[in-house]
């Protein structure tokens, strides 16, 4: 009974924190577009907090620069369980255009923290990000919550 | 109090409860817009494996060209594979892809062919820098300021040019300003070839005149343009283009004519090994020497070799004036004499 109530609450109210670990800001702009009345993220019960301590979902953007190699794990640890990580754009997946020969990016981000969903695109469309969060987020959070029990 | 009633009324409406229970972004916002560049679509079978897509790609890991294993049916296909995690959907690969139809498709921009001119025009105006004397008359005359000086050379900006043709009229040097036809180049070449072939066969048909031509004398003919023009219009159905190509070709044409008097040939076959393209051969059944006209370079080596002066060599020049008559002047070559003089 308690689990069922927790599932409903976790699925219908998702708190999001955007973590930019060294990208061009393109994906962050697309995330901000999601907040606008045009896409209206909050009608789905998703809130952008930008505070890892309150987040259920970490939206990861950027190609993991030198400075972020240690900090990424610290930010991830600060988020309370259950939590999931959705990587936005190509940078956390492959390093994209920054992953040139002789470059100093440490992609993929999955080398440092577990990534649950990936949204490819440079940048992905806001509707694609929204789709990914809604498709993966609620169920993954609910499952992750049960795991801990 | 009234505002509270308004809130209650608003929340009680069906539209609000629907939106609250079933939140959804309207599909016209979520849908991809027209001409959106999505991840490139790969049509494996058209790929020629040139690698242009990998070179144009700004992302290091996005495109890899792979080759399938050979099997009984034949060689394995070579084709590009797009990694979605690295592709930035710029569509450069589709734009550079040289195959027709395209191996890579992305958006619609690559399907639109670039045009040379903002106004649909048959001609493209270009300046021949070698002939241009930089008097800048065309610059002053141009109504849209399309002509400018770039790197000390006069240059026509094709995006501004309206193809009015005033620069050609004002240019004092013949040929410095050119209005060239940019379309169907192959048909233009075919017309020039047709003209040359027609004129050569016409001169070769005057065998008797050629053989009785004395040294330092000229043969002169006049033939009407109309016959070539009717053939040319079948290739390019535009009289203006066809007649201008023929006029340009005829006026600077110089044909070398080889005449071969077969009845006097002694069949010594000396000319056969000397021919650089092996176009001369001996036909044993017919007992004659045969020259393949399509292979022949008109290089005159056979004429210089022939010990009996059976092969004759002429030089023909042409001019075409406004009266639509092609003037032909044929002169015997004095090549052998020059060699003897030395």
Give a structural overview:
Chain A is α/β, with parallel strands linked by helices and 149 residues long. Chain A is 40% helix and 15% strand. Chain A has five helices and five strands; from the N terminus they run H-E-H-E-E-H-E-H-E-H. Chain A has helices spanning 2-12, 26-35, 68-78, 91-94, 126-148, and strands at 14-20, 46-48, 57-61, 84-88, 117-119. Chain A has a five-stranded parallel beta sheet. In chain A, strand 1, helix 2 (26-35) and strand 2 (46-48) form a beta-alpha-beta unit. In chain A, helix 1 packs antiparallel against helix 5 (126-148) and helix 2 crosses helix 5. Chain B contains 14 helices and 14 strands. The longest helix of chain B has 21 residues, at 185-205. Chain B has three domains: 41-116, Alpha-Beta Plaits, CATH 3.30.70; 123-181, Alpha-Beta Plaits (2-Layer Sandwich), CATH 3.30.70; 185-341, Alpha-Beta Plaits, CATH 3.30.70.20. The mean pLDDT of chain B is 82. Chain B is an alpha+beta fold. The interface between A and B is medium-sized, with 22 and 19 residues.
């Amino acid at each position: 009974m308690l689990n069922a109530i927790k599932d409903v609450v976790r699925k219908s109210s998702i708190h999001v924190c955007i973590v930019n670990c060294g990208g061009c800001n393109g994906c962050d702009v697309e995330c901000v577009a999601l907040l606008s009345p045009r896409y209206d993220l909050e009608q789905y019960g998703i809130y952008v907090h930008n505070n890892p301590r309150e987040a259920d979902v970490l939206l990861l953007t950027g190609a993991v620069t030198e400075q972020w190699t240690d900090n990424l794990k610290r930010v991830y640890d600060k988020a309370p369980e259950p939590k999931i990580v959705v990587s936005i754009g190509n940078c956390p997946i492959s390093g994209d255009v920054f992953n040139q020969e002789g470059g100093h990016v440490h992609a993929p981000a999955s080398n440092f923290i577990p990534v649950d969903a990936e949204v490819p695109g440079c940048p992905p469309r806001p509707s694609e990000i929204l789709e990914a969060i809604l498709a993966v987020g609620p169920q993954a959070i609910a499952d992750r919550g049960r795991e801990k029990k | 109090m009234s505002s509270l009633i308004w809130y209650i009324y608003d929340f009680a409406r069906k539209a609000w409860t629907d939106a609250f229970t079933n939140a959804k972004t309207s599909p016209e916002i979520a849908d991809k817009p027209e001409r959106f560049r999505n991840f490139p679509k790969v049509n494996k079978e058209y790929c020629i494996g040139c690698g242009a897509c990998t070179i144009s790609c700004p992302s290091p890991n996005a495109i890899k060209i792979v080759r399938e294993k050979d099997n009984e049916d034949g060689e394995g296909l070579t084709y590009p594979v797009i990694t979605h995690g690295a592709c930035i959907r710029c569509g450069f690969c589709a734009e550079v892809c040289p195959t027709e139809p395209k191996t890579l498709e992305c958006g619609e921009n690559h399907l639109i062919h670039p045009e040379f001119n903002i106004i649909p025009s048959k001609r493209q105006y270009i300046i021949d820098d070698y002939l241009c004397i930089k008097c800048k008359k065309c610059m002053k005359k141009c109504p849209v300021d399309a002509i400018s000086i770039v790197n000390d050379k006069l240059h026509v900006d094709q995006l501004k040019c309206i193809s009015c043709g005033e620069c050609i009229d004002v240019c004092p040097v013949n040929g410095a300003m050119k209005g060239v036809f940019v379309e169907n180049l192959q048909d233009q070449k075919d017309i020039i070839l047709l003209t040359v072939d027609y004129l050569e066969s016409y001169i070769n048909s005057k065998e008797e005149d050629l053989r009785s031509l004395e040294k330092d004398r000229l043969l002169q003919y006049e033939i009407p343009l109309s016959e070539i023009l009717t053939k040319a219009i079948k290739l390019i159905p535009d009289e203006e283009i066809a007649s201008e190509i023929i006029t340009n070709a005829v006026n600077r044409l110089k044909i070398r004519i080889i005449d071969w008097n077969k009845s006097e040939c002694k069949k010594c076959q000396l000319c056969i090994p000397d021919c650089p393209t092996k176009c001369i051969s001996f036909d044993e059944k017919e007992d004659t020497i045969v020259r393949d006209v399509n292979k022949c370079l008109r290089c005159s080596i056979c004429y210089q070799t022939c010990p009996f002066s059976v092969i004759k060599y002429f030089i023909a020049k042409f001019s075409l004036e406004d009266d639509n008559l092609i003037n032909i002047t044929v002169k015997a070559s004095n090549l052998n004499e020059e060699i003897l003089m030395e």
